[in-house]
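dumping this here so i dont lose it
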């Protein structure tokens, strides 16, 4: 497994730019593989991504009996810990003309830091709260991995109701739950498995009704600060503790915007009822009864349980696909872990508290949701680079799951089509690994970049007053990261 050495092996670092921020001694040991092994998860990634994670690129493909992909050269090559650190003057000379591009608007806030030493290399409005859009998901990922641990699984349970034949399905907040093997999310827990457990537990008792208990969540189902079209536009939807396939009506839909159920909890309950042979008009919302004596089975008796994939997989899905419903579910897991209400407000407060507990400046993050759909969210670029550096720290191996799903420039996820053809962006192909964010007039990107000399940097660029559309804003953002990738900046 490739890894950067501890800071003591990296040679003397240049004197840091004056900053009030705490320096984090870090190492990008891709301990993600160790964490995955610890929770019994095996991840196979193709080509260059496997190489960046320290896998042998051909082994996973051959094991699956597939023809190995040819590996593009120099894609996400292992960073060189002995590579020279860019100088602040060198970085400034390269970035100053780019961050002032008119197409990015009047607020372009930027933070660039060296991953090993923590030295600040460029700062422009770096500590200013800025609308982050989906880059918020980096904070969601770090806080849920810190609060819940990577191997935690979210249960969906069925218990006996108060009346004979009543089955209560209790949503625990797993948005990846599938109806059957045709679910949207690979490796998801399934309702047909839960239904089989229930039938076996009931023995000769015939199910007659289904009650849906989603009371672990509270508050509104749509986020504060969401644009009016988000609930019905396909990128967001109602956030309920029980849903299947992220609330999608069609689990076979391609990634991206998809029609969602207006009441995903009841839709899931009806699917469960059909699997049990219960009429869908016998499905209602309600609460699971407390365990009591009497009846066969007794009210409250567990009839079955299925478990979500480990949180580390859900974080991977959230980041790689920028999945908003998964993000909101993970924010609520932070709330539940900290004994806060599992609501938009509770999740936001819990994430803020988790950031503070990690030793980072919580005054530089103000959230209203976990997905970044809310325009009320504010995060500073420097907090984002701090989060990335903390996730790379050997002191926090549980946070390394943040890196597995980060899109790769010109290769995967939301960066698949970027760093390809836009002028000035080519050096970022294969060298930039980052989370992106987009709302109307808001464009952002934050993650990692390897310089031409092999030095690993973390960067964040947030803009929230963009005059035009993504056609001009995104290439301008990409030129900033590509400039870091293409220079030694010394």
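and the seq i came up w/
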């Amino acid at each position: 497994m490739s890894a950067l050495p501890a800071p003591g092996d990296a040679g003397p670092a240049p004197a840091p730019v004056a900053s009030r921020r705490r320096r984090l001694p870090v190492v990008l040991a891709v301990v993600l593989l160790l964490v995955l092994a610890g929770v019994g998860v095996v991840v196979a990634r193709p080509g260059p991504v496997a190489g960046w994670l320290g896998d042998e690129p051909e082994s996973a493909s051959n094991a699956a009996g597939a023809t190995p992909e040819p590996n593009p050269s120099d894609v996400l090559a292992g960073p060189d810990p002995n590579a020279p650190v860019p100088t602040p003057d060198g970085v400034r000379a390269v970035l100053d003309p780019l961050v002032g591009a008119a197409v990015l608007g009047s607020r372009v806030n930027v933070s660039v830091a060296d991953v090993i030493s923590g030295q600040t290399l460029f700062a422009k409005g770096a500590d200013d709260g800025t609308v982050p859009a989906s880059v918020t998901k980096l904070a969601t990922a770090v806080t849920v991995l810190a609060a819940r641990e990577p191997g935690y699984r979210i249960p969906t349970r069925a218990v006996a109701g108060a009346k004979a034949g009543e089955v209560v399905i209790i949503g625990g907040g797993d948005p990846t739950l599938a109806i059957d093997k045709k679910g949207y999310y690979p490796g998801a827990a399934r309702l047909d498995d839960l239904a089989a457990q229930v039938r076996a537990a009931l023995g000769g008792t015939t199910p007659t009704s289904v009650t849906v208990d989603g009371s672990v969540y509270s508050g509104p189902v749509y986020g504060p600060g969401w644009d009016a079209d988000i609930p019905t536009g396909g990128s967001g939807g109602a956030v309920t503790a029980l849903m299947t396939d992220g609330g999608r009506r069609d689990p076979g839909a391609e990634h991206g915007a998809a029609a969602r159920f207006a009441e995903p909890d009841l839709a899931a309950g009806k699917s469960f009822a059909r699997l049990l042979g219960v009429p869908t008009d016998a499905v209602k919302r309600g609460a699971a009864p407390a365990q009591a004596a009497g009846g066969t089975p007794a009210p409250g008796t567990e009839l079955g349980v299925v478990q979500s994939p480990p949180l580390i997989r859900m974080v991977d899905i959230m980041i790689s696909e920028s999945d908003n419903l998964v993000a909101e579910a993970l924010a609520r897991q932070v709330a539940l872990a900290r004994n806060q209400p599992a609501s938009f407000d509770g999740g936001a407060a819990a994430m803020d508290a988790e950031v503070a507990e990690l030793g980072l400046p919580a005054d530089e993050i103000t959230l209203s949701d976990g997905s970044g759909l809310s325009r009320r969210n504010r995060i500073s670029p420097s907090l984002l680079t701090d989060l990335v550096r903390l996730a790379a720290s050997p002191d926090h191996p549980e946070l390394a799951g943040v890196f597995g799903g980060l899109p790769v420039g010109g290769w995967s996820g939301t960066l698949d089509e970027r760093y390809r053809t836009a002028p000035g962006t080519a050096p970022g192909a294969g060298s930039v690994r980052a989370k992106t964010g987009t709302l109307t007039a808001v464009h952002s990107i934050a993650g990692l970049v390897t310089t031409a000399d092999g030095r690993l940097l973390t960067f964040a660029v947030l803009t929230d007053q963009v005059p035009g559309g993504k056609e001009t804003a995104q290439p301008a953002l990409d030129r900033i990261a590509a400039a870091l990738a293409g220079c030694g900046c010394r």
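Residues 470-486 form the longest helix (17 residues).
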